[in-house]
Each structure stands twice: as C-alpha cells, then as structure tokens.
Specification:
- By secondary structure, this protein is α+β, with helices and mostly antiparallel strands.
- The strands form two sheets. The protein has a four-stranded mixed sheet.
- It has two helices and six strands, in the order ββαββαββ.
- The model has no long low-confidence stretch (mean pLDDT 85).
- β3 and β4 form a beta hairpin.
C-alpha cells in the first residue's frame, strides 16, 4: 500500500477515487504520568519513552487508515495528513489521527 502526503503519484495516474479514510490512536492519561515520572529517561532534552509511545500511536493510526483503504479496494492513500490533539478530561489523553484519500492507481 503506497501512502503519500502528496496529491498525486508521479507517473501513476489515479484510476479511481474511493473516498476519505482515517485511523486513530489514543495515548491514555497514565502514559503521561508514567513518562514524566521517568525523567531519568530524558537525555539531551529528549524522552526516548515518550518518543517511542508517539511513534507507536502514529504507526497504529496509519495502519488503521491503510486497512480502511484496502477494504475499499484501494492500493494507495494520497494527501495524507497527521494530527496530534490533546483530548479528554483535564486534557489527559493524546489522540493521533491520520487521514487521506483512498485511491486505485
């Protein structure tokens, strides 16, 4: 499954637009408490555990989006956008969402 942030794929015309597809992943409130409690993990101003959790959430959102495109009969997703939003009571959760247009090339 080809996934791109661009609206086209060079040399491969879109044969059919299949619709908008999305995927979401939410990091729970406990992850923030656990990550900030582990300040010792921070090296050079970066938290490896926090970055790993964000990477996993992004990968989950992208995987869900690709699965939805596949169910529609697509072989690519174009115009992909990633969003990060704080949600929930007291902004205790982080949502990562991926959206794009499923197409058949």
């Amino acid at each position: 499954m080809l996934v791109t942030t661009t609206q086209t794929v060079e040399g491969r015309p879109v044969a059919e637009y299949l619709g908008i597809v999305t995927g979401e992943a939410i990091l729970g409130a406990n992850i923030f408490r656990d990550l900030f409690a582990g300040v010792r993990d921070i090296v050079g101003g970066r938290s490896g555990a926090y970055e790993k959790s964000l990477r996993e959430a992004r990968e989950t959102a992208l995987a869900e989006m690709k699965e939805e495109a596949e169910r529609l009969g697509g072989n690519a997703v174009i115009g992909v956008d990633l969003d990060y939003e704080v949600v929930g009571k007291e902004s205790g959760m982080l949502m990562v969402s991926a959206s794009g247009t499923a197409v058949r090339l």
